[in-house]
Write a structure and sequence with these properties.
By secondary structure, the chain is α/β, with parallel strands linked by helices. It has one domain: Nucleotidyltransferase, domain 5. About 35% of the residues lie in helices and about 40% in strands. It contains two helices and five strands, in the order βββαβαβ. About 20% of the residues are buried. The mean pLDDT is about 95.
Length: about 80
């Protein structure tokens, strides 16, 4: 199954994202101040709808809410399934 797993660390300047696709794994670092936009771009480019956040729960929920709001206002869609683990 294709999915993104994001290791969320509240006070870091970058967040680590693991892309699991076609049996392979690729990791990238995304600047925290561009995280919402970059996650949506990655999801669209890689054609992945499932995103998992691993890390601080309350902080992750805030980022999830920001991504969902950004997705709705900029793309008029609600396709990304984000789960906090």
């Amino acid at each position: 199954m294709d999915e993104l797993v994001c290791k969320i660390q509240p006070f870091d300047l970058t967040q680590t994202v693991y892309i699991y696709k076609d049996g392979g794994v690729k990791s990238i670092k995304i600047p925290t101040n561009e995280f919402c936009e970059q996650i949506i771009s990655l999801v669209r480019a890689e054609q992945i709808n499932r995103v998992f956040f691993k890390g601080h729960k309350k902080y992750s929920k805030g980022i999830k809410d920001q991504i969902k709001k950004y997705e709705k206002t900029h793309y008029c869609s609600d396709e990304i399934d984000i789960e906090i683990i």
